[in-house]
Design goal:
five-stranded antiparallel β-sheet; homodimer; mainly beta; about 100 residues; 10 strands
Chain lengths: ~100, ~100
């Protein structure tokens, strides 16, 4: 496996739910892509003992973290500490592509 | 602290060495920015029990991971597993901005 990966080679879509691809994974960190077509959603959920971040690469998403819901576009990091409910929905007209990490 | 951060508000520079800013930090994950002006370098080093990734946001860098050295630009993830020496130098003419995570 190469230590260098361009995310654009991993972008994809599914009709029934959002698309996920793994970039790298260790016992400490999972780094991946989440791709949401317009209208697709990752329902609000939480991880008891894992922190998660989203970093928006393309498009825009409506992110919920705890009791806050905000739209975020390219260049924005969204942080959900362990135990904090989080999710995202693509209410836009273009694909939402997110770099995602869980530690 | 907000759970939403645009990295562009944290970009900076130092004359003497590369610039670092922290986006988020927990006991499991440090997420930050590394900004290297042309000619600046993060010398090759390693972390015995921490995995690290770089994700290039702006500019281009010459990254070393283990015995491999490659140039990487925006959209490329560079992965350095625990114990693997890694570093980066900016040999270009524009600022190199990297999203960096250590888990």
């Amino acid at each position: 496996m190469s230590n260098f990966t361009d995310y654009r080679g991993l972008v994809g879509q599914r009709a029934d739910k959002h698309y996920k691809a793994t970039l790298y994974q260790s016992e400490r960190l999972l780094l991946g892509l989440n791709c949401l077509e317009p209208g697709q959603e990752q329902h609000v959920h939480s991880h008891d003992d894992q922190d998660k971040f989203y970093f928006v690469l393309e498009g825009a998403g409506e992110f919920t973290v705890g009791d806050e819901t905000r739209s975020a576009g390219p260049g924005v990091t969204v942080w959900a500490a362990a135990g904090v409910p989080h999710g995202v929905v693509n209410r836009g007209s273009e694909r939402l592509v997110i770099l995602m990490g869980i530690a």
